[in-house]
Design a protein that fits this description.
The complex is a heterotetramer, with two copies of chain A, one copy of chain B and one copy of chain C. By secondary structure, chain A is of the alpha+beta class. Chain A has helices at 17-28, 53-67, 85-89, and strands at 2-10, 34-47, 73-80. Chain A has a single domain (2-80), classed as Phosphoribosylformylglycinamidine synthase subunit PurS (Mth169, Chain: A, 2-Layer Sandwich), CATH 3.30.1280.10. Residues 83-90 of chain A have low confidence and may be disordered. The chains are: A alpha+beta, B alpha/beta, C alpha+beta. At the A-D interface, strand 1, helix 1, strand 2 and helix 2 of A face helix 1, strand 2 and helix 2 of D. Adenosine-5'-diphosphate (ADP) binds next to helix 5, strand 17 and strand 18 of chain C.
Chain lengths: 90, 227, 757, 90
């Protein structure tokens, strides 16, 4: 079994008030030097079976049609092996 | 026989019973529709009511969009059946791409419940015929994901084609681009808006005004007239 | 690790057990051994410890709460009294209403959003379990100083949590309170109330009867969250949170709860359950033992059938888990299939976990081996009872002697005006719209009145226009000065608020928030407050239908102000007759009902202007409250008044400002003669505007009704004084000052957003 | 300038209703073989100046006290060089 991560972020041109609220709060909390904050979503998917090309293609499609709304969001798919998974994969 | 107006219930829908009441107050027959059924029970029009379908998890409207009932609603809407999406229903309509753009978290990040002034920008939709173009109405607004966004081209197109159906007046409550509170598709049968006309159909209840009744009388006239 | 079965416990009588870590006292542990005739198993120990905690057993408060059942006023509205999930009252036309307030104080300090959210979730399930459709929520809240940095963490989180959960359930939020005081700094109070409506025949009770009936657990899967939540709710410190690594707070899933509500209501409609109980504090331990204890037979549960979110949970943990959004039903065998079908329709997981048995024992098995064998009453209803020592605090006399009536008063009209502007802008008196606008008050389409009205009101029947109203009130400052009077003042204010809206007060619920019961000072406050409340309810004819006690609300050695919160439920036959607070029609006459004395102890003025707390709270006259309520209700029913607003903290001027701003029109006031005005340069005006004498309200009377109205008051002996007229766009006190509505609006509405937005 | 990412996820023992809703929806959409979904937050912070030990320590503290509530959430801090940033760092 392996973990696939899908990161979904608002497109750069879309206003991100959540990120802005975080950024505005930082100086008040004594944290300087962060010039921008964007907040997005992280999905951790536990995939049964091997994460091969076919599986990744399906997950890509899932991200595109479901996990992200591509009118407003971009996404990235990453494979992240979980402990003990590597052996099982080979 | 009067018009039959379907009101869809998704898991997590909240305003279905209120919408059914509004339909009845306007003199039409309200027909409950269940998200798992493809069958639209021969209704003449469909309302997708407000609420938090599927908890609004992932994105508002994102999961409901894939329900069996929506397959039929999408087909019928494309064939010209009147569909009104209120609040969560509007979010579902943008997620299905029956209406362009998307809804995002309010710019102030809070849920907001207020009596909201709107301008009805067009009465050439199935749901606004009973209003005067430019008429100002006040109806409740209540949501946390009410910020309408679309790219500039889409916004320009909506403006040019007269498809901005409602605009916020006095206060833009959520940062919606160009003060857009609701839009229509090109044919005028599919309309979506964030504020809640179904909560403004009886004096005394809620804000005490009946400014929302026009949505339901419009569709009734439209359907009965068409027969 | 070997399973600690009943057999194993019998064989290893001397095995050491972590009873102390679980919060049990030595004598309590001994009693468990006595009851069982052996040492308890791990699972039994878990059950007893959690059910005998302060939160679940009311061991410190029981002896005082008894009065609510003893001093019961004549009242034929009561259908179900104290002891069930929530009380039920008859509101006429075949309808019954159930309502209750509960606290979720400690979790809301640790995780404000989830703490508050799950507080709403819990109280809604209590109401649902009675057979009712939940129709509205209320949320009395208290926070530390408004300008304290930590309040900026706690308040927005709590408000977002209450809104996030309640809004998602589709329950209009129709009332509550927001109070700031440094005494709540490390211990905010998050109380949540819910109202439910049903027909008389739909009332359900939490009991398991009928041998062979199935016990069905339905709703969310059981997880490891919230284990030890009960201990943290009532434990002595935040540290002792039960087994390590299990977090003390739960995460709520309002979507799941919404499904649970609709599913349960459909199950009720088809009459499929013989008994039902929500899962809240103490989870399955509580639900199974309470159901079995209240029913006629015993119960057998196969714990390994419970659907889990985390397969590593031990049986003890499953018993204690406070995973949210779960219910437990007792169902006749031939109705189980239909029950399951409805659950499937709503995507709700349902599992038969046991059945009602012949004997009298609660028996729990784990993969066929018995791990619990107890008499359920000893777990659920016959827990320890403490007679904690209490004594009037040594500092009480000095506090009362520090008379607020002697504080420096405004030297001239300009100073009076300035102090009033400061008062209406102070965090406690300022508009709470920024908070309440985060709550849906329109959903369900039955809301007649909501914030900032005196009471929330919802329509119950569309045909007849029957409605119910609710207000919640509490004033910790008054209660600190005199807990007996303070509790009665909370009751009186809430009662007055309901009457001012036009509804007839019927019954009350309460949430009693106090410090540590092990402190005799606190225990005295608790004893006095409960005595005051019970006596007050007797005098007003409003029975206590239920409530909640929250103890150990303190930071270190310092307890919060004693804070009894009272929720009064009222009924109105025709909601079209409701009375709003807004002054609307220019030319209408303003009348003050009741008498004004110099009463500044605990007042908002003494806090805002002098940061002072001392003296005595306003005098309580419950006969007067009763008369005032009757007049307000009659006047509303007969169309004699167009607006009414009760007077409480901030006095007359606060009420006038609120009513003017609400209606968007001003008022001209004349200071009546004959008020006492010792040593005040501003004469009677100061007392007139700022005293907090109880038993008062201001009403707006159409000129055509003036005579009829004053005659009615005169005939029934209620003092009534004409104090001015609705007029213009300012609040003017003749001979004193004038404040424009704009100025007032800016002051009144700016404060809270400035602090928290 | 460099980008630091803070991923905040609910602790494993804490209920994740959002992730569950996503997971339950997947089979209906025709995506099989995902045995678990957890949904969390991703913060992208643009940091002025070098991302040295001190900066990372500060961000760690920020994550611990502000971005995550460690009563219910875990977090991970990762440095993610942005384009052109690598040169600047050295
Ligand atoms: N302050 C109180 N006044 C009257 N009744 C109370 C009070 N506190 C608790 N009760 C009653 O005791 C019973 C147990 O309370 P509680 O444990 O809060 O209920 P639940 O188990 O449903 O959470 C309930 O019937 C409740 O109404
Ligand atoms: Mg209960």
């Amino acid at each position: 079994m392996a973990r696939v991560v899908v990161d979904v972020m608002l497109k750069p041109e879309i206003l991100d008030p959540q990120g802005q609220a975080v950024q505005r709060a930082l100086p008040r909390l004594g944290f300087q030097g962060i010039s921008d904050v964007r907040q997005g979503k992280r999905f951790e998917l536990e995939v049964d079976g091997p994460v091969d090309e076919a599986a990744l293609a399906r997950i890509h499609e899932m991200a595109e049609t479901f996990l992200a709304n591509t009118v407003i969001e971009d996404f990235v798919v990453k494979v992240e092996a979980t402990e003990g998974a590597e052996g099982a994969d080979k | 026989m009067t018009a039959r107006i379907g009101v869809v219930t998704f898991p997590g829908t909240l305003d279905d019973r209120d919408t059914q009441r509004a339909v009845r107050v306007a003199g039409a027959e309200a027909v409950p529709l269940w998200h798992r059924d493809k069958d639209l029970k021969q209704v003449d029009a469909v309302v997708l009511p407000g609420g938090f379908s599927y908890g609004d998890y992932l994105r508002a409207g994102a999961i409901s969009r894939f329900s069996p009932v929506m397959e039929s609603v999408i087909d019928q809407a494309k064939a010209g059946m009147p569909v009104l999406g209120i609040c969560n229903g509007f979010q579902v309509l943008t997620e299905t791409h029956l209406l362009p753009g998307a809804m995002l978290r309010n710019n102030h990040l809070h849920f907001i419940c207020r009596d909201q002034k709107l301008r009805v920008e067009t009465n050439s939709t199935a749901w606004t015929a009973d209003y005067e173009p430019g008429q100002e109405i006040s109806i409740p607004l209540k949501n946390i994901d009410g910020r309408y966004v679309a790219d500039e081209r889409t916004l320009d197109m909506l403006e040019a084609e007269g498809r901005v159906a409602f605009r916020y007046l006095d206060v833009n409550p959520n940062g919606s681009l160009r003060d857009i509170a609701g839009i229509t598709n090109a044919a005028g049968n599919v309309v979506g808006l964030m504020p809640h006309p179904e909560h403004a159909v009886e004096p005394l209840i809620g804000t005490g005004r009946t400014d929302g009744l026009g949505f339901f009388t419009s569709i009734l006239k439209n359907l009965v007239g068409a027969r | 690790m070997t399973l600690d079965t009943v057999k194993h416990a019998e064989q290893t009588p001397e095995a050491g057990q972590p009873w102390a870590e679980l919060g049990l006292k030595p004598d309590e542990y001994e009693r468990i051994r006595e009851i069982l005739g052996r040492r308890p198993t791990g699972a039994e120990l878990a059950m007893y410890s959690v059910m005998w905690s302060e939160h679940c057993s009311y061991k410190s408060s029981k002896v005082h709460l008894k009065q609510f059942g003893e001093k019961v006023p004549e009242n034929d509205a009561m259908l179900v009294g104290i002891g069930e999930n929530a009380g039920v009252v008859d509101v006429g036309q075949g309808y019954a209403v159930t309502f209750k307030v509960e606290s979720h104080n400690h979790p809301s300090y640790i995780e404000p959003y989830q703490g508050a959210a799950t507080g709403v979730g819990g109280i809604v399930r209590d109401i649902l379990a009675m057979g009712a459709r939940p129709v509205a929520v209320v949320d009395p809240l208290r926070f530390g100083a408004a300008d304290h940095p930590d309040t900026k963490r706690v308040l927005p989180g709590v408000v977002a949590g209450i809104g996030g959960y309640g809004n998602c359930l589709g329950l209009p939020n129709i009332g509550g309170e927001v109070v700031f005081d440094p005494c709540y700094q490390g211990n905010p109070l998050v109380n949540a109330g819910c109202i439910g409506v049903m027909k008389h025949e739909d009332i359900h009770l939490a009991k398991a009867s009928g041998t062979g009936n199935k016990v069905i657990l339905y709703g969310a899967r059981t997880g490891g969250d919230g284990i030890g939540g009960v201990s943290v709710l009532a434990s002595e410190t935040f540290e002792s949170t039960g087994p390590a690594k299990r977090p003390a707070v739960q995460v709520g899933d309002p979507f799941q709860e919404k499904l649970l509500i609709e599913c349960t209501l459909e199950i009720f409609a088809e009459k499929l359950v013989a008994g039902i109980q929500d899962l809240g504090g103490a989870g399955l331990s509580c639900a199974t033992s309470e159901l079995a204890s209240a029913g006629s037979g015993g119960m057998r549960v196969d714990l390994d059938t419970v659907p889990l979110r985390d397969s590593s949970l031990s049986p003890e943990e499953i018993l204690m888990s406070e995973s949210q959004e779960r219910m437990c039903a007792v169902v006749e065998p031939d109705k189980v299939d239909r029950f399951m079908e409805i659950c499937e329709k709503w995507d709700v997981i349902a599992t038969v976990i046991g059945e009602v048995t012949e004997g009298e024992r609660l028996e729990i098995f784990w993969h066929g081996e018995q791990i619990v064998d107890v008499p359920p009453r000893t777990v659920a209803h016959e827990g320890p009872v403490y007679h904690r020592p209490y004594e009037r605090p040594s500092w009480q006399d000095a506090l009362q002697a520090d008379d607020a009536n002697k504080l420096a008063r405004p030297a001239n009209s300009a100073e009076l005006k300035e102090q009033i502007l400061k008062l209406v802008a102070s965090p406690n008196q300022a508009s709470k719209a920024w908070i309440t606008d985060q709550y849906d008050r329109f959903v369900q389409g039955n809301t007649i009145l909501a914030q900032p009205e005196d009471a929330g009101m919802v329509r119950v029947d569309e045909e007849s226009n029957l409605g119910v109203a609710m207000a919640t009130d509490g004033n910790g400052r008054y209660a600190k000065l005199d807990p007996y009077a303070g509790a009665q003042l909370a009751l009186a204010e809430s009662y007055r608020n309901v009457a001012a809206s036009g509804a007839k007060p019927l019954a009350i619920s309460n949430c009693l928030n106090f410090g540590s019961p092990e402190d005799p000072d606190v225990m005295w406050q608790f004893a006095e407050a409960t005595r005051g409340l019970a006596d007050g309810c007797l005098a007003l004819g409003t029975p206590v239908t239920g409530g909640n006690v929250s103890l150990y609300n303190q930071t270190g050695e310092t307890a919060i102000h004693p804070t009894p919160v009272v929720a009064v439920l009222g009924v109105i036959d025709d909601v079209t007759r409701r009375t709003p607070i807004a002054f609307k029609e220019e030319g209408q006459l303003l009348y003050l009902l009741g008498e004004t004395h110099e009463e500044f102890g605990g007042s908002a003025w003494s806090q805002v202007v002098h940061d002072h707390l001392g003296g005595l709270p306003p005098k309580v006259d419950l006969e007067r409250e009763r008369l005032l309520a009757e007049i307000l209700i009659s006047a509303s029913r007969d169309g004699m008044i167009d607006a009414a607003h009760d007077l409480s903290d901030g006095g007359l001027i606060q009420a006038i400002v609120e009513s003017c701003l609400r209606g968007g029109v001003g008022a001209r006031l004349v200071v009546p003669d004959g008020l006492s005005s010792t040593g005040s340069a501003t004469g009677d005006a100061f007392t007139f505007l700022l005293s907090e004498s109880a038993g008062r309200a201001v009403v707006s009377v159409p000129r055509s009704e003036e005579l009829r109205f004053t005659d009615m008051c005169g005939a029934r002996g209620l003092p009534v004084t004409r104090i001015g007229v609705v007029d213009g766009d300012a609040v003017e006190v003749q001979g004193q000052f004038q404040l424009s509505l704009e100025e007032l609006r800016t002051a009144h509405t700016g404060t809270i957003p400035e602090l928290f937005a």
